[in-house]
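hiii so my PI (J.) wants the whole complex modelled not just the main chain, which honestly fair. so below is everything: two entries, each one labled with what it is. i double checked the lines twice but i was tired so who knows lol
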Amino acid sequence: MAVTAVSTAGARKPPPRLRKLEDERWLAAVLLAPTAVLLGLFIAYPFFEGVMLSLSSAKVGDPGQFVGLANFAKLWDDNIFWTSVWNTFWYTGVTTVFKLGLGLWLAMLLNRHFKGKAIVRAFILLPFIIPTVLSTFAWKWMFDPTFSVINWSLFKLGLIHMRINWLGDPSLAMDSIMVVNIWRGVPFFAISLLAGLQTISPELNEAAAIDGARPWARFWYVTWPLLLPVTMVVMLFSVIQTFADFQLVYVMTGGGPANATHLFATYAYQIGIVSGLLSQGAAVSLAMFPFLFVIVVVQLLYIRRVETR
Amino acid sequence: MVNTKRRSVIKLAGSAAAVASTGMAGILASGRTPAYAQQKAVHWLRWVDFVPASDTLLRKELLPRAEKELGMKITLETVNGNDLQPRATAAIQSGTGPDLIQAFNTNAYIYANSVVDLTDIAEDMSKREGGIYKYCRSLCSDGKMFMSMPWAVPGAMISYRKSWFEEVGFNAFPKTWQELHDAAKKLKAKGRPIGQTLGHTFGDAPTFTYPYMWSWGGKEVEADGKTVAINSKETIESVKFMTQLWKDGCDEGALAWDDTNNNRAFLSGTISATLNGASIYIESSRKPDTYQTEKGTPLFKDILHSPLPAGPAGQFGMHLMQSDMLMKYSKNQAASKEFLKWIHDEKNYGEWFNSQKGYSTPCTAMWEKNPLWDKDPVMAPFKVAARLGQAPGFAGLPNQKAAEALSKYIITDMYAKAVQGMAAEESVKWAEGELKKIYSV
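here's the output for the full assembly
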């Protein structure tokens, strides 16, 4: 009786406050507000400040005045800047190719069934989890000019007779930082691609095998196309992170020897923070923006094309 | 209510007010913020000393004593020398940080807008102690104000293995670059090259490349302080010679060395000579059993010091100059000045100076007479380091522009590029371009 009484009593209007919560527009605004504030404070505001800084003649302790694009004009003539542009592209390009190749290979191996699979998958992530500075320091010791364990091992094995100048030779120094970056980045690719691989139904591969496709053909025509969306997204993140890399290069070589391994970020730091020329440092890091923007847009367009296939 | 007399009510109110004048109730009642005696505090940022004993002395004895005598809290923070500049920049821009920051060489010029004038303390010390050396004065003062308080000059000399140089026919350290080239060639053939860094490190690289360039007659700018003069026959000669010396006699891995690598290399017996402060000798004499020669004798007995060789234009030296800046943003300026006066007092500074065992030369002439210099003849060359040093920016003043050139490692890179294969004329031209960018503003 109570039930019917309730139901026949007529629907009570919900209290006004509840109605507001059901107003989607208002709710959306409220839920988005914290994110907007955070993004504004920590991304938009520093970016804007950076742009203003790069258009001024600010030095440490001296706010300077507006000078328009003078800093960028200076950069145009700065051959260390162009060296760091080239270095960044080369560094990002080579490491991404290797990380993709090795990561994919690793992912395909981890996709199989074997004893201890779970433990191996967990350990694979270690290079990526260990704080970058820590692992880079360890690598720095391994490449040390005097005490390198790599040199020592190769020497004992009789493969070399003179110390390899890992960090002192310009091209070897670049190779060294690329090796460390690849070592650190492969797990990220491997685990992400593994997740992608696991969404591919094994029946597709089996069907292809029954039809007589060999392993390479199975990979190229079945696995790879289905993996492409995940691959592209992972590559996008990796490219952005590598392009803007600072910690690894700073710890390993500091941008040396003689500016041979400077990237945008380390060169901006050298000029802006170490030498105190804030406006010029801001100009260097902002110069990263157009290049990165183009790369990201191209990749996003490609992803869109791949996904709507 | 009970019969309350007016007097007792007032008395009660009075005692209540007395009670209420303490604690939070009192604060609220009085309507003003409480005045607590602010404890004076000074935060001092320095490098990690290459003579660890001095840092220990500061932390365990000198600073606790200062705290007691001056009634203030003193925090000493030590960081890698290469990190002092970034810390200073960050602190100035954010308006908060250490009160006293150590500056190397010409760095005080870079931060000139953000420091407090210390002329009074500096001139006072100068009067008491026989005058501040011209070298130190030029790096700390721009003629109008003292941007930092001179602290000390870790002298840079060549540390070399006496027995190894004797084996290749040199009973004293080579006096000219040509002689050094001969010695180094023979030594490298025996697996004992010279170790000299050309990397981006604040100490050993500029203290070699600048005096090296000067000894050939090269210079950054003319005496007018504006005309860039580096692209000269003399500089090109020096670069060509450096390339030859590097290939024939130096440890080529040293392009990647910072200020600690050469210490390690020397102490482990892989190089025969290096430009350094006295830390190699001091460290090996502190631990004679750890550091031994290949014959089993203590290493420190085989180490001697020598100034840099001379070039066609003479013999020069540039030493690391250390000073302390008092930052404008500091809220403890009076306390910091008090502390600076205290630490530069002869008695207190003398203790620090002794713990350095000659690694650092003080900035005033009085200390040349100190008995420490007579104790160990191996350390004798360091006595006059501050007296003889020449500052970067030669032949102009060691000002803001010279400081910028120094912190960009232009001169060091000029040599580094050449030894990596660039033609001498090209690398000098590159340096000229970089210097023009700085000096043309």
